[in-house]
């Protein structure tokens, strides 16, 4: 079976990853204190595809099963208590 190359993009705040249509395969999230939360939507103003509350002061690896989550654009809508998120996509 042939697949697409996996790429990554590091983000440090709310906004678009500017990668166009993609399948989200994995997230690496580094959190700070408080009540960290990360929300990813299908483009700016699109449907929420990932909404996670995370443990403080930790690094989280979130694997997406099967073919990943298909979006028109990866948009970080909520970025509370996080320092960075690296999105792996194809």
Structure, explained:
This protein has 90 residues and is an all-beta fold. It has one domain (7-89): Jelly Rolls. It contains no helices and 9 strands. The strands form 2 sheets. Strands 1, 3, 6, 7 and 9 form a 5-stranded antiparallel sheet that branches. Strands 2-8-4-5 form a 4-stranded antiparallel sheet, with no helix packed on it.
How much of the sequence lies in strands comes to: over 45%
- Biggest pleated sheet: 5 strands, antiparallel
Question: Which runs of at least 5 residues are low in confidence (pLDDT < 50)?
Answer: none
Average pLDDT, all residues:
95
Q: What is the element string, with H for helices and E for strands?
A: EEEEEEEEE
What is the approximate shape? globular
CATH architecture label name = Sandwich
What is the overall number of helices? 0
Percentage of residues in helical conformation: under 10%
The beta-strand count equals 9
Termini separation (Å)?
Answer: 15 Å
At CATH level 3, the topology is Jelly Rolls
Structural class: mainly beta
C-alpha Rg (nearest Å): 12 Å
The CATH C-level name is Mainly Beta
The count of domains is: 1
Structural key phrases:
Jelly Rolls; 5-stranded antiparallel beta sheet; single chain; 90 residues; 0% helix; mainly beta
Summarize the model shown.
The protein has no helices and 9 strands.
What is the element layout, followed by pairings?
Layout: E1 7-11, E2 15-16, E3 22-31, E4 37-42, E5 48-53, E6 59-63, E7 69-71, E8 74-80, E9 82-89
Antiparallel strand pairs: 1-9, 2-8, 3-6, 3-7, 3-9, 4-5, 4-8
